[in-house]
Specification:
about 0% strand, transmembrane
């Protein structure tokens, strides 16, 4: 294992070095939070693919392939579909807004009164997303070093917190680009063909497994529908995803670069399912489907290659973890803390804002690590995150982009009713049940439409300014935050 250890240690050291390099570039709020809005198509595509394809997509995707066969690709496939929909239909408009958070977009659209409550919901989502990624370090470091779970979470989490705090989005962008390359080589070019060959090829796999393993819909129609609701729609509105859209150099970069990243996700989804199916042939009686990835890597890959593929898994986890962490800190600082304090932005405060955002990344990073140590169930934490996001924020965000009659009161009612419905239904039916997101989303939509139609339309001046902003005809400075007492 010495060669494998060397590969991993070099990789982790490289992540920290890029964090230090990124610190030298992140001298303003724009540079720190959105990489100066300067990413070109190649880097934008790679980093976008890196953040959406995390530990759940890699380790979990292989596990679903082990359990269901080729139809196990649907979870990651719906993530790719969501990224494609975001890129083709919405990303150009989102990029032209020149904001930093989803809640700022809601403030612009509805007249400055929707930010704090939507910020709280988005913060809860990004926090839980970062926690689920951080928990995954335990699996990888256990395979590598037979390390204690708590120590593994602290080690992996600390590295991500360190480079994210140092250089912000520039560090995360650079590390994500490396992680994208490592994932492509490790999973698509090495693990996929080796797993299929070790399993005897597709003909042998078909001979040894039940026919439903090769049924595209074998996982079940209701499960696929739920994946679409949670992951496809979740991709449209998550702060972690939007913050990457904000890094694009132009609206065309956001559209076409995101389309390339979405297509890559579809390929990655199929690859994970095939690897999992091959693992089922090689190890038909594993105690847990989630151990399929680690088992096939540990037992079937040659020295050196094994280290690279484990680095690829680590890359997948780190890219999602760092993206969720900076999103969580950005929302906590800009959408919640600043508004509760009634902070007004002034010229010349950019450097102080970098310090403030850096401090929030550090604080949120410690909170994420502590929460990850306390929790065990990754799937439940991820489900809570996406149920809150989709049930609470999908309707007011898409409504704001698509329906001019939507009002601030309608948006606030939608967030409150949808969020509370999701929480109540999860308590009633269970966290993993489908009903919370189904009925939460319907109640959010009903509240948005009814309250919007029964209240005064959004002021014409606000809508006019919103249309100008969507068209990219206004400069970047944002309206002053509304103090908490107004």
């Amino acid at each position: 294992m010495a060669v494998d250890y060397t590969v991993i240690v070099v990789y982790l050291a490289g992540m920290l070095a890029m964090g230090w390099w990124g610190m030298r570039r992140a001298k303003s709020k724009s540079e720190f939070l959105v990489a100066g809005r300067r990413l070109g198509p190649a880097m934008y595509s790679g980093t976008m693919a890196a953040i959406v394809l995390g530990g759940a997509s890699t380790i979990g995707g292989v596990g679903l392939g082990y359990q269901y066969g080729l139809s196990g690709a649907w979870m990651v496939f719906t993530i790719g579909l969501g990224l494609l929909a975001l890129s083709v239909f919405f990303s150009a408009r989102i990029a032209r807004l020149k904001v930093y958070t989803v809640s700022e977009m809601l403030d612009l659209r509805y007249g400055g009164r929707a930010g704090v409550i939507s910020g709280v919901v988005m913060w809860a989502y990004t926090l839980m997303l970062a926690v689920t990624s951080t928990i995954a370090y335990a699996t990888i470091f256990d395979v590598l070093f037979d390390m204690n779970r708590t120590l593994a979470i602290i080690l992996g989490g600390s590295i991500v917190v360190a480079y994210s705090t140092l250089g912000g989005m520039w560090s995360i962008t650079l590390t994500d680009m490396v992680q994208f390359v490592v994932k492509t080589i490790g999973v698509l070019l090495l693990l996929l063909p080796i797993a299929v060959i070790k399993a005897g090829g597709f003909s042998e796999m078909k001979a040894k497994l039940p026919t439903e393993y090769f049924d595209p819909l074998g996982i079940g129609g209701e499960t696929i529908f739920t994946y679409v609701l949670i992951y496809t729609f979740g991709m449209l509105i998550g702060q972690d995803i939007w913050q990457r859209v904000f890094t694009a150099r132009s609206d065309k970069t956001a559209k076409w670069g995101g389309t390339v990243a979405g297509t890559y996700c579809l390929v990655y989804a199929l690859a994970g399912a095939v690897i999992g199916t091959a693992a089922k042939v090689l190890y038909p009686k594993l105690p847990s489907a989630d151990t399929a990835f680690a088992t096939i890597v540990k037992d079937e890959l040659p020295v050196g290659v094994r280290g690279l593929v484990l680095a690829a898994a680590l890359a997948a986890v780190m890219s999602t973890s760092s993206g969720a962490l900076i999103a969580c800190a950005t929302v906590a600082n800009n959408d919640i803390w600043a508004k509760l304090r009634g902070v007004v932005k002034r010229d010349g405060e950019e450097h102080d804002e970098v310090k403030g955002n850096r401090a929030f990344i550090l604080i949120m990073g410690v909170a994420v690590i502590c929460t990850a140590i306390a929790l065990n169930n990754v799937v439940e934490a991820l489900t809570v995150a996406y149920n809150l996001l989709v049930g609470g924020l999908l309707v007011p965000i898409l409504g704001g982009l698509l329906w001019k009659r939507g009002t601030a009161a309608g948006a606030l009612a939608s967030v409150a009713v949808g969020g509370l419905a999701v929480i109540g239904l999860m308590a009633t039916y269970g966290i993993l049940a489908n009903e919370p997101v189904y009925y939460g989303l319907l109640s959010s939509l009903a509240a948005y439409v009814v309250v919007s139609l029964s209240t005064k339309p959004t002021d014409a001046a606000v809508l006019a300014a919103w249309r100008e902003r969507l068209a990219g005809r206004t400069p970047e400075p944002l309206p002053e935050p509304v103090p908490a007492h107004q």
